[in-house]
Amino acid sequence: MKKTGLAHFVAAAGYSWRGFCAAWRGESAFRQEVMLLVVGVPLAWWLGHTMLERALLVSSLLLVLLVELMNSAIESVVDRIGFEVHELSGKAKDMGSAAVFLSLVIAGTLWISVLWERFYA
């Protein structure tokens, strides 16, 4: 029987927690990005002049984690299918990696912009 309402919410929260735990255990990049978030949140609070700036700085770091989770999911599915070298498998993994890279560019651009405004403008 399909769960609805609060039972669905609780089950979904459990699935999400399992996903976070799997990423923490199996993905060194995810652990590094979580550490970046741990350092970045207080730094964003200090660095941002407005709540909007603070929210953008923190959100950019969360975006990196979100894309890293999606990239890890893609890699897991591709590896589940098989470890033999295949053009489409490599393409999927490379595109996931490119998405992580773009999320890092977005975060870096926001952080550099706020740093510039704070110290050089």
UniProtKB/TrEMBL annotation:
Q: Which reaction does it catalyse?
A: a 1,2-diacyl-sn-glycerol + ATP = a 1,2-diacyl-sn-glycero-3-phosphate + ADP + H(+)
Q: What is its EC number?
A: 2.7.1.107
Molecular function via GO: ATP-dependent diacylglycerol kinase activity
Localization of this protein: Cell inner membrane
Q: Does the keyword Membrane apply?
A: yes
Q: Does the keyword Lipid biosynthesis apply?
A: yes
Q: Tell me which UniProt keywords the record has, alphabetically.
A: ATP-binding, Cell inner membrane, Cell membrane, Kinase, Lipid biosynthesis, Lipid metabolism, Magnesium, Membrane, Metal-binding, Nucleotide-binding, Phospholipid biosynthesis, Phospholipid metabolism, Transferase, Transmembrane, Transmembrane helix
User: Which residue ranges traverse the bilayer?
Assistant: 55-78, 98-116
Cofactor(s) needed, names only, are: Mg(2+)
**According to Swiss-Prot or TrEMBL, what is its membrane topology?**
Multi-pass membrane protein
Q: Which PROSITE patterns match?
A: DAGK_PROKAR
Q: What is its main location?
A: membrane
The record's PANTHER family line, in alphabetical order, gives: DIACYLGLYCEROL KINASE
Family statement drawn from the similarity comment of this UniProt entry = Belongs to the bacterial diacylglycerol kinase family.
Task performed by this protein: Catalyzes the ATP-dependent phosphorylation of sn-l,2-diacylglycerol (DAG) to phosphatidic acid. Involved in the recycling of diacylglycerol produced as a by-product during membrane-derived oligosaccharide (MDO) biosynthesis.
Q: What is the protein's name according to its record?
A: Diacylglycerol kinase
Species: Marinospirillum alkalitolerans
